[in-house]
Design goal:
single chain; alpha/beta; Rossmann fold; DNA polymerase, domain 1; six-stranded parallel sheet; 11 helices; 10 strands
């Protein structure tokens, strides 16, 4: 039987948009422009460590500590460079500001295959659509610059709502904005725990975007798996 759905919610990073190149490469290029030579592989490793530590210490962009995403990210970038062996604090301050702004630019992001076309066709079919993302407040800007914002009736970010997926309150907020009970809504995302399981825990339908060759977690029926975004519409009908 075809699903009766009225609202679709979407994760963004690695579902609709992805970084054009690894973080280490972007950071290394920005550093070179300031005359600093730091190997991309070193920066990639250092970034994972700095990001992980900061996420543990100050969850959700340090909202609880009064940080906010800008100061949160500046600290992550500077710590990344320090861990990779760069020590010129003046240069790191400039680099951090530059990278924080730069990651809003469309140049750093690319669409996943089928993203724009799928969103367009879902709009044409009359679905109400929203974003449910653990991203910070720059997401609105990124969606505008990547020419995607107009597809969505609402955009919920972890920083703005104060909750992060898999917290059910994130999805409850989306349902109330969508104006439907959970059984008339589906969430599309690439993360098993934060997207698929979390949406299903509130009674929504879930679709898991899974590139070929990536293993599947237990308990995800094949009809809930999307090898690409173009597989979504054939599986649902308003």
């Amino acid at each position: 039987a075809m699903l009766k759905l009225r609202v679709l919610t979407w994760d963004v990073k690695d579902t609709l948009l992805r970084l054009r190149r690894p973080v280490g490469q972007s950071y290394a290029a920005a550093a070179r422009a300031q005359g600093l030579r730091v190997p991309p592989e070193e920066l990639e490793r250092a970034f994972r460590a700095a990001y992980g530590a900061q996420s543990q210490r100050c969850p959700n962009y340090g909202r609880g500590q009064g940080l906010g995403s800008r100061r949160w990210w500046l600290a992550v970038v500077k710590e990344t460079f320090r861990l990779a062996g760069a020590s010129d604090e003046g240069a790191l301050e400039l680099l951090a500001e530059h990278l924080y702004r730069d990651f809003c630019g469309a140049g750093n992001w690319e669409e996943l295959p089928g993203a724009a076309e799928t969103l367009e066709r879902c709009r044409q079919r009359g679905f109400r659509m929203g974003v449910v993302s653990n991203f910070d407040e720059r997401l609105e800007d990124i969606l505008h610059r990547c020419r995607m914002r107009h597809h969505f009736d609402f955009v919920l970010t972890a920083e703005a709502t104060g909750f992060a997926k898999p917290d059910r309150r994130m999805f409850e907020r989306a349902l109330s904005l969508g104006g439907v009970p959970p059984e008339l809504a589906a969430h599309v995302g690439d993360d098993y725990t934060r997207d698929y399981r979390a949406a299903r825990a509130v009674g929504m339908h879930g679709f898991l975007l899974r590139a070929a060759g990536r293993g599947l977690e237990p308990g995800v029926p094949p009809e809930h798996v999307l090898p690409t975004l173009s597989h979504l519409l054939p599986r649902i009908q308003k």
